[in-house]
Design brief:
The chain has about 290 residues and is an alpha/beta fold. The chain is built from 7 helices and 15 strands. The structure holds fe (ii) ion. The site of fe (ii) ion (FE2) has 7 residues, from loops.
């Protein structure tokens, strides 16, 4: 089963969103859609999500699912906006409840903020199956980058989130709360058990100079050439490498707005008495020294 996949690159955050579908006029899932967000003015926009919507409309697709691979810390999700415009169900891994609990406390959202995942329409567990028209998908839990990270496998296509980057850039950081380098290594070993010709669709690409962003690679290319794993790198060496690299990384620019929106399934906080919605900035509470 070879589903059709169209990938869209969001330049400002180097994020790929994907539309996977069975055939024109058929059914689709949208994976990891991005909300445009201008940090200096805190203005939101949906031009990028509109491109996804234009694509599914041009191909007369019924969108069954909006799938998040994890609670992203580098971009805001457009899932809630696309849910309104498509009627699709928004889903993420059940581990989102732990992420919600953690960031309810960081942002001091209080008991009024539910941490049972109810902002989403469906929570997936490892091994779950789902349908997209004539396509069938399955879920592989791939924690490590975050503890809610999932891979969605649809036919020969695997949507791996940030569990793998392109072979020449390796793997994503594992130092967020709930992240763990050894767990990430184990999740990648599970993905390496997929057939070598499995298409691996990435959530990000940060290409070196001279290479265009690339949305897709294969399990065989990852096994043979991933700079963090190829040549039989063992767990201990991987963990040492990953933790040393992570120690030098700055926090993602949009981590605070992203998490406040993404734990709400891409929804914004309710307006306050003056009709304005606000995000919070906890001072001296996140990042190094916290
Ligand atoms: Fe991520």
């Amino acid at each position: 089963m070879k589903p059709r996949v169209e990938s869209f690159f969001h330049e400002a955050t180097s994020t790929f969103s994907h539309v996977v579908f069975d055939h024109g006029g058929g059914h689709a899932a949208i994976i990891d859609p991005v909300m445009d967000y201008d940090a200096p003015t805190a203005r939101t926009a949906f031009d990028s999500a509109q491109r996804l919507l234009d694509f599914v409309r041009a191909h007369s697709l019924t969108v069954d699912w909006i799938l998040e691979t994890h609670a992203h810390a580098d971009h805001l999700s457009a899932a809630a906006w696309l849910r309104v415009h498509t009627g699709a169900k928004v889903a993420i891994g059940r581990g989102i409840t732990r992420v919600q609990e953690r960031f309810r406390d960081v942002f001091h959202l209080g008991d009024g903020f539910a941490v049972d995942g109810r902002q989403f329409d469906h929570l997936f567990d490892d091994g779950d199956r789902f349908g997209i028209g004539t396509l069938s998908g399955r879920v592989i839990a791939t924690p490590g980058h975050t503890d809610d990270s999932l891979t969605y496998v649809v036919g020969d296509a695997a949507f791996v989130g940030d569990t793998l980057f392109a072979p020449d850039t390796g793997t994503a950081r594992a130092d967020f709360p709930g992240g763990d380098a050894a767990t990430l290594y184990g999740s990648i070993q599970r993905l390496f058990e997929l057939p070598g010709d499995t298409r691996v669709f990435l959530c990000h690409d940060y290409p070196p100079d001279g290479r265009e962003p690339s949305a897709v690679t294969t399990i065989a290319a990852q096994r043979e050439r991933n700079v963090h794993l190829a040549g039989g790198v063992g767990e201990a060496a991987f963990v040492r490498m990953r933790e040393a690299r992570d120690a030098g990384l700055a926090a993602p620019k949009l981590i605070l707005p992203s998490l406040q929106v993404n734990i709400r399934a891409g929804g914004l906080p309710e307006p306050e008495a003056n009709g304005v919605r606000y995000l919070r900035l906890p001072l001296n509470h996140v990042g190094s020294g916290a």
